[in-house]
Amino acid sequence: MTENAAPALSITGLSKEFGGLLALDGVSLTVAPGERRAIIGPNGAGKTTLFSLISGEARPSAGRIALFGRDVTRFAPYRRAGLGLARTYQITNLFPRLTALDNCLLAVQALSPAKFHLHRYPAFHQRARRVLDAVGLADKEDEAVRNLSHGEQRQLEIALALAGSPRLLLLDEPTAGLSPAESHAMTALLKDLDPAITVLVIEHDMDVAFALTDRITVLHYGKVVADGLAQEVKANALVQEIYLGTS
């Protein structure tokens, strides 16, 4: 990050309470433009809640969220998307009866002021085909999504996230449910993303997390318990105890 560049993401004292349960407790972190950061931790640590707050799908109980220097704590999701935020989910969120290309066209058009019409604008088709090619699905554009393999559907979700030319990409367990071969292919795909895109990834597979990211933030019971370079965090005794089950 250059001296005068605003962080891609800045979170200060972020908390979220659900009916008396504190899912996030005073989380603060800063992510530089172009950085690759992993969020890891055991189930129930608050990782997906953190993503929901960043994307605007949930409101924090306390704290502040800024994207590229702009306070977005009270912004609706579509306004955050307009600033360059995109997100994928643990469970695929696609239109199964539509083709891969039509799914991408919907995503490409989502941030455009143009009137909705899938096949009216050649530029939308060009963009949709570029993102399909970028994730290795150029030969699947006419295939109905329901006929794609699980791995291909995960690739398509990445394509949809890339369709809006995001500046900050949130990936929620992108290798979940994939075979070892599919996981390896997905890791290679993500490593090849435009380095200008800031990537924040939730990942249970430690090998994938370390392969993809420069820095690791560890959540446990809604709090940040470790944060630093990947190898530093990997060697952290507390992380080994709570995440790897060692002592």
Strand content: 15-25%
Mean pLDDT: 89
Number of helices: 9
Estimated helix fraction: 25-40%
Strand order of the largest sheet: 6-7-8-3-9-10
Low-confidence stretches: none
- Shape summary: globular
What is the element string, with H for helices and E for strands?
EEEHEEHEHHHEHEHEEHH
| Largest β sheet strand count, sense and barrel closure | 6 strands, mixed
- Quantity of strands, as a count: 10
Structural class: alpha/beta
How would you describe this protein?
With about 250 residues, the protein is of the alpha/beta class. About 35% of the residues lie in helices and about 25% in strands. The protein contains 9 helices and 10 strands. The strands form 2 sheets. It has a 6-stranded mixed β-sheet, sandwiched between helices. Strands 2-1-4-5 form a 4-stranded antiparallel β-sheet, with helices on one face. Helix 3 crosses helix 4 (about 120-135) and helix 3 runs parallel beside helix 5. The longest helix has 14 residues, at about 150-165. The chain starts with 8 loop residues before the first strand and ends in a 5-residue tail after the last helix. The mean pLDDT is about 90.
Summarize the structure.
The protein has helices spanning 47-55, 77-82, 100-110, 122-134, 150-163, 180-191, 206-212, 230-234, 237-242; strands spanning 9-18, 21-31, 36-40, 62-67, 70-71, 85-87, 168-172, 198-202, 215-220, 223-229.
